[in-house]
């Protein structure tokens, strides 16, 4: 039987509606929730992501302030822009759109964001809190994946979870969140030997690689939940890591691309920004 589709678009709409309701409550108290976005350069994909985030802010009733810096911006100017938003009490969340041009030190820039305003959850303080079970701000994509898994109603306790990809923004934090739910977690990466032997054991398989068609049906255990984080543009079309048509015949649940993890990431950015405003203002 074909897998059930984990519809990130529908679920994200529900989450954004809840965020909009809570935002309206804050508005009644005279608080305007505001997301500050810093973008460096004119990368077309980044422009689309930033526009989508601004549209989401409009929909839930946030204001957004975007600072666009020149492609050749110095580290000093980027840091000044971050400091400006740190000090601005009207801004509750700060997001630096990644990737940054090569002359800029991404880790140093992210470390400057006030952890309370770090709505992406990339600051070392927030990463440390997550890794020590005291989570405050959870990165948006892993948080969205956990919401989707919750939506399936599957009890994660004792399940085998396999994550392909070990980035700081997806692979490592999703592994921590699955571990927190008592999954037995394996993190695979580009040096993993016999990848298929690992993925075939997974009740929950998360792929965050960025290679179209990377996860094929023979890598998936029948009945597994398959979460496709990958986003790659091929001939103007957005595609994931998973060979959707064949894997959906094996899996029990599967996320589509587009319409899966992507919209959930934006919904969680809205939730994180609202929570930052509540923490800073209430
Ligand atoms: P990344 O690009 O930093 O790293 C890719 C990971 O894939 C690495 O950890 C690497 O070890 C692993 N990898 C590469 N080749 C492999 C192989 N042959 N076998 C096993 N592992 C291999 O990772 P990222 O920033 O987490 O992004 C991954 C993908 O997810 C990209 O396509 C990105 O665009 C997408 N993404 C989507 C969202 C979303 O909202 N849907 C959010 C973030 C990232």
The computed structural class is: alpha/beta
Please report which band the strand proportion falls in: under 5%, 5-15%, 15-25%, 25-35%, 35-45% or over 45%.
Answer: 15-25%
Largest sheet: 6 strands, parallel
Trace the largest sheet across and list its strands.
1-11-8-7-5-6
Overall morphology: globular
What ions, cofactors and ligands are bound? nicotinamide-adenine-dinucleotide
Following the backbone from N to C, one meets helices and strands in this order, namely EHEHEHEHHHEHEHEEEEHEH
Question: Would you tell me the overall average pLDDT?
Answer: 97
Q: Radius of gyration over alpha carbons?
A: 19 Å
The total count of strands amounts to: 11
How large is the count of helical segments?
10
Q: What is the share of helical residues?
A: 40-55%
* Quaternary structure state of the chains depicted: single chain
Through-space gap between termini = 49 Å
Low-confidence stretches: none
List the helices and strands and how they pair.
Blueprint: E1 4-5, H1 8-28, E2 34-40, H2 44-60, E3 63-69, H3 75-87, E4 93-96, H4 106-112, H5 124-131, H6 140-152, E5 160-164, H7 171-180, E6 184-188, H8 195-199, E7 204-207, E8 225-228, E9 232-234, E10 237-239, H9 244-247, E11 253-254, H10 261-281
Parallel strand pairs: 1-11, 2-3, 2-4, 5-6, 5-7, 7-8, 8-11
Antiparallel strand pairs: 9-10
Helix pairs in contact: 1-10, 2-10, 6-7, 6-10
This protein binds nicotinamide-adenine-dinucleotide.
Nicotinamide-adenine-dinucleotide is lined by residues 141, 164-167, 169-171, 188-190, 192, 195, 208-210, 229-232, 261-262, 265.
């Amino acid at each position: 039987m074909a897998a059930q589709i984990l519809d990130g678009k529908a679920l994200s709409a529900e989450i954004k509606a809840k965020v909009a309701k809570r935002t309206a409550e804050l508005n009644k108290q005279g608080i305007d929730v505001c997301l500050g976005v810093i973008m460096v350069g004119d990368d077309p994909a980044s422009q689309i992501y930033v526009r989508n985030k601004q549209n989401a802010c409009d929909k839930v009733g946030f204001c957004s302030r975007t600072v666009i810096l020149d492609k050749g911006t110095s580290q000093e100017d980027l840091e000044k822009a971050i400091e400006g938003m740190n000090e601005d009490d009207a801004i509750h969340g700060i997001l630096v759109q990644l990737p940054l041009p090569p002359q800029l030190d991404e880790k140093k820039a992210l470390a400057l964001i006030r952890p309370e305003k770090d709505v992406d959850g990339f600051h070392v303080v927030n990463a440390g809190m997550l890794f020590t079970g005291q989570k405050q701000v959870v990165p948006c994509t892993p948080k969205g994946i956990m919401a989707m898994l919750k939506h399936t109603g599957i009890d994660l306790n004792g399940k085998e979870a396999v994550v392909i990809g070990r980035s700081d923004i997806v692979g490592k934090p999703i592994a921590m969140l699955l571990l927190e739910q008592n999954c037995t977690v394996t993190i695979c990466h580009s040096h993993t030997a016999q990848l298929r032997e690992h993925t075939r054991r997974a009740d929950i398989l998360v792929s965050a690689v960025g290679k179209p068609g990377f996860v094929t049906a023979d890598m998936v255990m029948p009945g597994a939940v398959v979460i496709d984080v990958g986003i790659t543009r091929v001939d103007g079309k957005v595609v994931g890591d998973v060979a959707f048509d064949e894997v959906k015949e094996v899996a029990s649940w599967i996320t589509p691309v587009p319409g899966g993890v992507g919209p959930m990431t934006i919904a969680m950015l809205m939730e994180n920004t609202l929570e930052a405003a509540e923490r800073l203002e209430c």
